[in-house]
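Render this sequence as a predicted structure.
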Amino acid sequence: MITRRDMAIALAASALTAGAFALADKPSVLGSTAFDWNSIAVKATEVGSVRQVVNQPTPTLENLEVHITTLNPGKSPHPPHRHPNEEMLIIRQGTLEALINGEWKRVGPGSVIFFASNQLHGVKNVGDEPAIYHVVNWKTTATPDAAHP
């Protein structure tokens, strides 16, 4: 016969197990850190390469994603697109054209590009050397769930 005590213990164990699974699936929050360029793995792509720096929540963002793209001359990482998160590119080397508000704008080293939520955008390397740029994406509670067509 199952007693009230047995039932209470079973419920408590179930709740603790469910809580442990919920915490196990939740990525850790990023604290202050430094990322050494030489220790970030390089992954070759069809158009150059990418270094994934970080992709996790911070104390104030639901998610922070940073990667560094090396884009070969004449290439685009993908066709123009839109997404709910906001995105910033910081050009380290090379010359890019960025699709902003329906117009292609040329930028070079030290330039910063900002793409607003759900705005059609894209980049292409219009120079004769590889373009290297840092990409910063973030998601907050205000970020829409899905892009508008």
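Summary. The domain at 37-139 is CATH 2.60.120.10 (Jelly Rolls). The first strand starts at residue 42 and ends at 45.
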